[in-house]
Amino acid sequence: MSARDDILAAVRAALTDVSPAVAVPEAPRAPDRGDLVALFVERVEDYRAVVTRCNEADLAGVVAGVLGERSSVVPPALGLEIAGSVVDDGLSAAELDAIDAVVTRARVGIAETGTIVLDHQPDQGRRAISLVPDLHVCIVDATQVVADVPDAIALLDPARPLTWISGPSATSDIELDRVEGVHGPRTLHVVLVGP
């Protein structure tokens, strides 16, 4: 047993009969906003992202139209054939940097904040592919849209890597000049599937 294990065992033993000093309050809930999908679209567009709605039958054509002539990478289990796309099998950062776009699915969309969460399952791929190409085309099913962050947290596994996306990557310098694409994709295009 290591010193770390000894210390953690001592802490666990000391906390065996201890109850929390205060009850943890419930997270505040957003008021009923009606149509969650419409609110999600509104909030995503507020972040300067583009949203295209379609049905499942038209999904492949819509994604192809968004990509146009751009080179693209997809995760191994995207579940959608995209002509000319490279399937990520551990591409290097330099190889990813040479690719224009990435297409992924999402784990959940949050209506209140316009945030998309990836938990990097096989249909979303590893984190690097969602951060390096300049365009991120993210497929969100309307059934994945939840009201607020507490609803999203309830669906997520905290042991998985999570990427929370609220619009294109952006930052501001000291003069408050907005610069996009510094820490991730410069453009986010959400393809919303469903009614």
How would you portray this structure in words?
This is Lactate utilization protein C. It holds the Pfam family LUD_dom. Strands 1-12-7-4-2-3 form a 6-stranded parallel β-sheet, with helices on both faces. A 4-stranded mixed β-sheet has the order 8-5-6-9. The longest helix is centred in the first third of the chain and has 12 residues, at about 5-15. It is of the alpha/beta class. It has a single domain (about 30-195), classed as NagB/RpiA/CoA transferase-like (Rossmann fold), CATH 3.40.50.10420. It is globular and about 60 Å long. It has 6 helices and 12 strands. Helix content is about 25%, strand content about 25%.
Key traits:
FTHF_cligase-like_sf, six-stranded parallel β-sheet, 195 residues, 6 helices, alpha/beta, Rossmann fold
